[in-house]
């Protein structure tokens, strides 16, 4: 499966990270640019995170039609880009697991077909990278959410959530004092789940394919209070923000 092939790729990538010989093998198999550093375990993890990030974006942009939305208008992703990436992962091309893993991420990073080599320091385009920075600041100061991956129930590698490390990283990246990194800021300001009974005329919609739906309020999680209260919706076959797009004939049925 796509998930199992992905896990094999990450496993092989990280297993080679500790030695200079292993990192040189990674460099060759991943087709890194000559100037791209791969001199340490941290560099290899940065490459792994770079590949993983492409799937985060493609999952959000997993629309049934070509779309430039996730790329901020700087290019176009194919319909269902996650499926296209998985075809690369599961291909019988004879390439190594690392090569196929990196190739699959290029559905996102090399959407234009113009890249000759891989550089984990470079995002897909400046605007999308800027969006990521702005979101990171908001994550740190207003919407700190616990996120983890275990490499068993998902298609990635072990990344346990560490609140102290997350807070420390936010303080370091943004030169913030500890009082500005409050994990419970949103709950304190808006009341959290306990405030829902007092909410009126709100539809809480999530796309079934949107990775953010795992942190959303889904049908069955709260008592639905009808049109004058809270109505949670899960849109079948929908990715990120598809409910906010202009309608089109090839929209997922909802």
UniProtKB/TrEMBL annotation:
Gene3D superfamilies in the record: Serine carboxypeptidase S28, SKS domain
GO biological process: proteolysis
InterPro entries reported for this sequence: Peptidase_S28, Ser_carbopepase_S28_SKS
Tree of life domain: Eukaryota
GO molecular function, a single term: serine-type exopeptidase activity
Entry annotated with the keyword Glycoprotein: yes
Protein name, UniProt field: Carboxypeptidase
